[in-house]
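Quick illustration, no need to memorize.
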Amino acid sequence: MTDIDRHDLEACNDVFDWITEHSDDLSTEQAVEMLEAIRDTHSALRTAEAMLLSRVLGGIEQPILVGSVAYSKKPKIVLRPRLGKILQAVIDTAVEPDHETGEQPHPREAADRAVTLMADLYVAPSSLPKTGGLKKVSLRLGDVTMEERNGWELKRTEIE
């Protein structure tokens, strides 16, 4: 195989456990240095993981057994909306007659219903609207958003 095996990788966890346990004892400067090193390690780890996963998925034609664990490949399923069906349901609901009187809604009321339904379907409080849609109604992202502070991030500036 190679000179590196699973035990070498597991030993790395000991280092991360130590950092976790002693992070409060580090100076701010030491913590920044450790943070930068961990970010570099994290990036390298993600790359290695992606390469290994690609190798495994490319090599598995039928289930394999490693130790007492079976591994197999299965398709990844992603749900995609059927927009036409959704739009038709929104239109049908928006123009539905009043249940008691049987009257058709006024066009403005039907439009309000449709917009409300589409917002209920697609808009979460943290969602940003698509810029293409905003252009169609003569708006920009800055016109319809507000800034909200939700914590802190570390800003890194190279000084030469």
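Residues 83-142 form one domain.
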